[in-house]
Hints:
Layout lengths: L2 E7 L10 H16 L8 E5 L9 H9 L5 E5 L5 H14 L5 E9 L6 H9 L14 H16 L3 H15 L13 H6 L2 E3 L2 E2 L8 E9 L7 E11 L15 H12 L8 E4 L4 H11 L7 H6 L16 H4 L5 H15 L13 E8 L4 E10 L1
Parallel strand pairs: 2-3, 2-4, 9-10
Antiparallel strand pairs: 1-7, 4-7, 5-6, 8-11, 10-11
Helix pairs in contact: 6-9
Amino acid sequence: MSFIRGAAALGYGKHPGRDTLDLMSDAAQRALDDAQLLRADIDGLLCGYSTTLPHLMLSTLFAEHFGLQPSYAHGMQLGGATGFAMVMLAHHLVDSGVVRRMLVVAGENRLTGQSRDAAVQTLAQVGHARYEVPLGATIPAYYGLVASRYLQEHGVSEADLAQLAVLMRRQAQLHPGAQFRDPITVNDVLASKPVASPLKLLDCCPVSDGAAAFVVSRDALPGPAVSIRGTGQAHTHQHVSAAPSLTRFGARESVARALSGAGIALSDVRYLGIYDSFTVTLAILLEEIGLCPRGQSGPFARDGYFDRSGALPLNTHGGLLSYGHCGVAGAMAHLVEACLQLTGRAGLRQAGSPALALLHGDGGVLSSHVSLVLEGRA
């Protein structure tokens, strides 16, 4: 067994003058403080990659910078699924006794540390080097293709997708660290600037600066605690042009493995942290996992099903679409929020007293999937 003993995320948005190592250090120290641990107590380190600091040995570079001498250090690259994959690896390493206390950390100054063109060019490299990248496709363009097929196959409207953006903004309003908190409407989403048809600006997550960190440990503090009950992965493709389907991906298999490991059913889950880089990402994942019927995620969001007071609260911090997206640490904010919810520490955002949470992230264009089941003790 392993516990998430400490967790912390910075507010996402602009952090001018702060680089990757500075942001990671800030989040790491906050996680250690939450865990009531010193740097000398850490014997394992996992770091996510940074596009603004593409160092070949980021984990040991950070260890030196932060003053750690771990017996195990590792860097990981799995796109948006990296954060949850690091937690999964930390869980297994801690559970098997390789390390006692693993620091998991990621962050970067993606908004202020590079130009818009550089960011677009870097992220576009997820495409096939021969068949996609030379044609000028970007990440939004790949997801635009997926969105077009999703709308056509399930008879869904652009307004249905917009409901998910409105929901994430509604959730973010009570979080002081969210990049965007002003309320929006479906009409606002539909009227926002076209990015990659049918996706508009407000269908897309923002680019952010930020960082997040966790301590995964074999021991928990007395009182509130979060344990990692189950984990799972699934990898169906790398390039969207090679995907076996544009509407069915690996989320269901990944979640099934995590639920099986936890020994629970999907119906036992009472809180959700689901990856939402685009509205269509969130729609597809919610429906493929089985959290609502195909084509119905928008109406479910409209009717309050995923609200804090709804049947199944979702991304109560605002998700990538409103809290912000700073690369690997983007989805890690979902896990920080889940830890707060499971231990009754979310304040005004508290969504009842959930005991079990399901988290799911994806990397690439719905290519790599990682799922976590967490259990809380308030």
